[in-house]
Write a structure and sequence with these properties.
Layout (H helix, E strand, L loop, with lengths): L1 H20 L3 H37 L9 H23 L15 H7 L4 H14 L6 H31 L5 H25 L8
Length: about 210
């Protein structure tokens, strides 16, 4: 078991860092939240992303991904992804000024965790992880748990860095118009990043 764990940590860590640190829906939203609400108010969002993503991996490893061998389920997932992302993009683009505390609200822990279930980039990365790094043998669950821990260990610092980046950007957006333009730009980038992920998503290929 120790040899297996050691053999997984480095390659999975590199794989996770490459995927998790790159610009994508989660990181764009964290950066936007850091800009609008600051680091402290974005902590629940960061934790929702960092914990919700490995939980999805465990569910997929338990066999839930078999459901998506059916074309109807893939279509449902596609439209759920699009609907939720367009709602989030609208929320970002129309965000009130952070000083308007009665209306301005960052994502909660549960909202951020729920987003992982319709985030095509997360689905794609975990389908790839299960195919490449997880053997179909008696130490299957050991491998899955190690991978989940590695993604958590990599994902949380990355979430912190993207949020801090957003906080730094906020120093240059002291005007209402600048902040509005930034939010609209982030909303457009979010939609574009998800559209690209959906096109590349292996779960959405031809099926039965």
């Amino acid at each position: 078991m120790q040899d297996l764990t050691t053999a997984l940590i480095v390659p999975v860590g590199v794989f996770a860092l490459t995927l998790v640190a790159s610009p994508g829906p989660n990181n764009l939203m964290l950066s936007s939240s850091g800009t609008n609400f600051g680091f402290r108010r974005t902590v629940p969002h960061m934790l929702g992303v960092s914990l919700g993503s490995p939980i999805l991996l465990l569910v997929l490893a338990s066999g839930a991904n078999v459901l998506f061998e059916y074309n109807s389920m893939r279509v449902i997932l596609r439209y759920l992804c699009l609907a939720y992302v367009f709602w989030l993009a609208f929320k970002i683009a129309t965000s009130p000024h952070p000083k308007d505390t009665d209306r301005a609200r960052p994502l909660t822990f549960l909202q951020a965790a729920a987003f992982q279930w319709v985030n095509p980039k997360v689905w794609s990365q975990y389908v790839s992880v299960l195919a490449v790094f997880v053997p179909q043998r008696e130490d299957f669950w050991v491998s899955v748990i190690v991978i989940a821990i590695v993604f958590l260990a990599v994902g949380l610092p990355v979430a912190v860095l993207w949020t801090m980046l957003g906080q730094v950007i906020s120093r240059f957006l002291n005007g209402t118009l600048r902040l509005r333009l930034f939010n609209v730009a982030m909303a457009v980038l979010l939609v574009c990043s998800v559209a690209r992920s959906i096109v590349d998503m292996p779960l959405l290929g031809p099926g039965s």
